């Protein structure tokens, strides 16, 4: 059984191996294959079409969840085609999405969250997270891209001993 979940996989740009066998690739979009204005081909073909706010897997099923949600809340250009767009009520969406990522994560598992600070700040989006991240790059400066790591402890913190 696959032990890594990417619930918003998009075109898998960040993967060294886009067919990594350990990863369950999901996205709400599928069947997309088109050439963007920069000449690059956008292909979105998840293993499972699913909504990250209603992930169709069991509690605690994955050891690693990689969560890279849409970061745009406005616009309709090529970036929206590539990265998707947050719904108007993005706080509700992000709270539900984080909640689902956390639910399917095993105790002792890791959640990696990627966030590009476009208009919504990291501090605002982290209010939707289930707990504080363990560590990450707080001030990436130029790239504006944050990578944060959350660790799912048990209630006593000793379940994985
Ligand atoms: C920032 S992109 C992910 C890029 C990806 N990490 C990559 O390496 O190419 C965000 C993705 O979230 C997807 N998405 C948007 N709303 C979603 C939802 N409700 N459930 C699942 N995926 C969603 C979009 O279709 C988009 O492909």
Automatic annotation (TrEMBL):
Organism: Parvibacter caecicola
Protein name per UniProt: Class I SAM-dependent methyltransferase
InterPro entries assigned to the protein according to its UniProt record, in alphabetical order: SAM-dependent_MTases_sf
């Amino acid at each position: 059984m696959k032990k890594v979940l990417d619930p918003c996989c998009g075109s898998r740009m960040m993967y060294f191996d886009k067919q990594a066998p350990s990863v369950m690739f999901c996205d709400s979009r599928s069947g997309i294959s088109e050439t963007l204005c920069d000449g690059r081909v956008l292909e979105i073909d998840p293993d499972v079409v699913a909504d990250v706010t209603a992930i169709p897997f069991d509690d605690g099923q994955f050891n690693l969840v990689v969560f890279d949600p849409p970061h745009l809340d406005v616009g309709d250009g090529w970036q929206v085609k590539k990265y998707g767009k947050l719904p108007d009520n993005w706080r509700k969406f992000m709270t539900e999405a984080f909640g689902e990522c956390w639910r399917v994560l095993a105790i002792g598992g890791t959640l990696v969250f990627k966030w590009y600070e476009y208009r919504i700040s990291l501090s605002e989006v982290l209010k939707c997270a289930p707990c504080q991240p363990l560590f990450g790059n707080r001030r990436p400066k130029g790239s504006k891209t944050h990578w944060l790591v959350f660790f799912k402890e048990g209630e006593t913190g000793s379940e994985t001993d």
